[in-house]
Amino acid sequence: MHTPTPTDKQRGAAKMARIAIKIENNHEPLKKPDWIRVRVHATPVVENLKKILRDNKLHTVCEEASCPNLPECFGNGTATFMIMGDKCTRRCTFCDVAHGRPDKLDADEPHNMAKTIAQMALNYVVITSVDRDDLRDGGAGHFAACIKEARHLNPRLKIEVLVPDFRGRMEVALNNLAEHLPDVFNHNIETVERLYKEARPGSDYQWSLTLLKTFKARFPGIPTKSGLMVGLGESNEEVVAMLADLRAHDVDMVTIGQYLAPSRDHIRLKRYVTPEEFKQYEIAGYDMGFKHVASGPMVRSSYHADKQAAACGA
Fold first, then answer.
1. Tens digit of each residue's pLDDT (9 = 90 or more) over 196-242
2. 80 vs 162: CA distance, rounded Å
3. CB of 93 closer than 8 Å to CB of 133
4. Rounded distance, CA 87 to CA 5, Å?
5. pLDDT tens-digit series, residues 16-67
6. How far apart are CA 186 and CA 314, in angstroms?
7. For the chain, which has fewer Cβ within 10 Å, the N-terminal or C-terminal residue?
8. Of the candidates 125, 127, 126, 143, the residue with the CA atom closest to the CA atom of residue 135
């Protein structure tokens, strides 16, 4: 029997074993309602894109986080690139990305990603990453290197970054990222403050809000964006209050989607939010002054990101 080591990719029960709040996994899964539709079949286009990514030693959050929109996005020849490896230093209970001691940064990754973008003839990409609490700047310098190389090989490319929280490293992180700025700055708030200890151990609600506001204050011409998931036990009133917090911290765009538990070892799905409720969130967001609100059961932070950015002039 294999004894896990710190460098192993820990998923499911192994990943959750050391968090303070234990996950209840003896419940019956909720039956999916009619409005939840997840296509899971592969196509030649999807398989070809996966091959391109493997050939260039790249990861996508689409695969690592088991995104339900993978077939649609891959089928359209788009992907969200996940840099700095496939092992995260955090143990978020909603997320299917593996935990473990990260590997060293790949110095060739920025160029390999840029080549892949050119090969796929993309016009808009999202670059995200695992949390890298082991790095002095949280990996912001590597983000900047990826942006620089991607633009060098693809001059007309629009780039959105979906960054970790850089907790404890905000100043050095933003200084390094400032060397090569994105067209859209995205950081997901994920859930209401009351559920942070259970859903985002190691993260802090107010810190995430401050990161978004600080970036906007330093770079006011760049749209800011955040995303949240619902169905973990939050009330509709808490969702509206979270939207108000995001607007109070100068966030321009927001995405709201249904949480779908990757496995029984992840934080429990408490309910399926109705399409009517998602519409109410959308209306509330626009009433608060967001420039774009994407709210629906299958919405994810990077889903149709190019269309969201276009609505803000990015």
1. 888 888 889 999 999 999 999 999 999 999 999 999 999 999 999 99
2. 9
3. no
4. 13
5. 566 666 666 667 778 888 888 766 556 676 777 778 878 888 877 666 556 6
6. 13
7. N
8. 143
